[in-house]
Amino acid sequence: MAIAKAERLMNLALCLLGTRRPLSKRELRGSIEAYLEAGNDESFNRMFERDKDDLRELGLVIETVENLEGEIGYLARRDSNRLPPVSLDAEEAAALGLAAKVWQQARLAGAASGALQKLRAGGMPEAGDPYEGQHSAIEPRIPVHEAAFEPLMLACRDRRPVVFDYRKSTAAAPGTRQVEPWALECWRGHWYLAGFDRDRGAERVFRLSRITGKVRSRAGRYTAEVPDVVTVRETVASWAGESAERSALIRLRAGAGYPLRAKATAVREGGDGWDELEIPYGHGLDAWLVEFGPDVVVVEPADLRADVVDRLRAVAQG
C-alpha cells in the first residue's frame, strides 16, 4: 500500500511539474492510472485532495487557478519548486535548529523537523547549539491555541482566499469576512492575520482569537497584490498598537496592570488606591485597555475614553 501511494504521489507531482497550463481534476484523473481505478467520483476526489495535501506537506508549491469557464486547474511551476544552493555556516545552521524547537503546535513541529532534514540533505552542515550549557533550562516556545491558526497558515502558504466569521470588539454578533490572507504575525502574545478584505476593498488585520467557527477556503486567484513581509509586519504592529503618535492619561488600580506600567512614560502614585499613568497612544490601545477591565479608567483623550466605553458595553451585551 505504501509503495502504491508513493507511486501515485510521484505520478501526480510529475504531471503538475510537467504541464505548461493548469490541469483540471478531470484531466489528472485521465492521466494517472491509480485515479482511473477509483471506484467513483467521490472516491477519486477524496484521494486527490489527500494526495495534493501530502505533496504540499512535502514542500511542493501547487497553484490553484480558475479559468474563464470557472473550472479549477492545478500546476506546479518549476521555478517555484527549485531550491537554490544551500550555503549556511555552522552558526546559521545552529540558529535554524534553535528556531525549529520554538513551535509547540504538533503540525508545525513536524514541519520544522522536516524542513531541517531537507536542508541538511541539500548541504546544510550538521551543527549543535553553540549556546548549549548557557541556557539549557530555558527554551523558546510559541504557543498556538486558536483553532483558526492552522487553516490560515495553510491558506497564506498556498495563496488561497478564505471566508470566516469575525467578532469585532465593539460588535455584539460576528460578521462574515472574505479575506485574501497574506501572513500571520504574533504580537504581544496574540496572533494576528494581515490580509486584503474583499468586502471593504482594503487591507485589514484580524485577531485570531476573535474568529468564530471554521475558516472556509475559496477557489480563485488573489485580486490584490501581496506586500513584502516587512510591510506586513509593520501593518500588524500598527493595527495592534505598536505605533504611537500621542499620549494617553489613565488611572490604574494600585498593584494591577504591570504590562501597562512597563509601557508607561510617567507614573504618579495616588493615595486613593489608584495611580496615574501616561502611556503611548496608538491604534489598538482601546482594545488592550479593555482587557484590564475595572482596573483601568481612561482620563484622556476623550476619543480613547469613548472607544473603551463602547467596547465595554459591547462585552456587557454579550
Structural class comes to: alpha+beta
> Main beta sheet, described?
5 strands, antiparallel
Low-confidence stretches: 129-137
Average pLDDT works out at 80
Number of strands: 12
Helical proportion, percent range? 25-40%
- Which value, in Å, is the CA radius of gyration? 25 Å
Shape: elongated
Which strand order does the major sheet show? Answer: 7-6-5-4-8
**Fraction in beta strands:** 15-25%
Spatial gap, N to C terminus: 52 Å
**H/E order of the elements?**
HEHHHEEHHHEEEEEHEHEEHEH
DSSP summary: helix tally: 11
Give a description of the structure.
With 318 residues, this protein is an alpha+beta fold. It is built from 11 helices and 12 strands. The strands form 3 sheets. It has a 5-stranded antiparallel β-sheet with strand order 7-6-5-4-8. Strands 10-11-9-12 form a 4-stranded antiparallel β-sheet. A hairpin with a 5-residue loop joins strand 2 (63-66) and strand 3. Mean pLDDT is 80; it is low at 129-137.
